[in-house]
Amino acid sequence: MSKVITRKRYIIVRNGTYIMCGLARQYYFKPIDDIGDIQIKTYSSEEKAIAGFERSWHRKIGDEYQVVEVEEVIKVKDDLYSGGEPIAVSNGNN
User: Fold this and answer.
1) DSSP for 15-31?
2) What's the pLDDT score for residue 15?
3) Angle value at C-alpha 24, between 18 and 26, nearest 5 degrees
4) What span, in angstroms and rounded, lies between the C-alpha atoms of 64 and 57?
């Protein structure tokens, strides 16, 4: 049986049509309709989203930039899930 993990996350949206994307401090805004398989920057709380964005971008959350609550869904493949604890998978670094 596979496992589905859902959790509340927060993202930064610009002008209601662009989502903050990227990894490792190389962030940029991409149109919502053009996200595809791009990594979206998420935060675990609204407070962390505001603090992280304002500190990094030197802009304030307000009219142009908003924090939006989203639901993240992760589906664990059947072959990685034994019904109890997920089976450990090496990422090559351990």
Assistant:
1) TTTEEEEEETTEEEEEE
2) 95
3) 45
4) 13
Contact 20, 41 (CB under 8 A): yes
pLDDT of residue 75: 87
Q: Residue written as tokens 């998978």?
A: 89
What are 74's strand-pairing partners?
A: 5
What does pTM read for this prediction? 0.76
Which stretches of the chain are assigned E, i.e. beta strand? 3-14, 18-23, 26-31, 65-76
Q: What is the pLDDT of residue 93?
A: 47
* Distance in angstroms (rounded) separating the CA atoms of residues 62 and 68: 12
Query: Taking CA 82 as the corner, what is the angle to CA 80 and CA 83, rounded to the nearest 5 degrees?
Result: 125
Phi, psi of 54 (to 5 degrees): -65, -35
- Residue segments in the chain with a per-residue pLDDT below the cut of 70: 1, 79-94
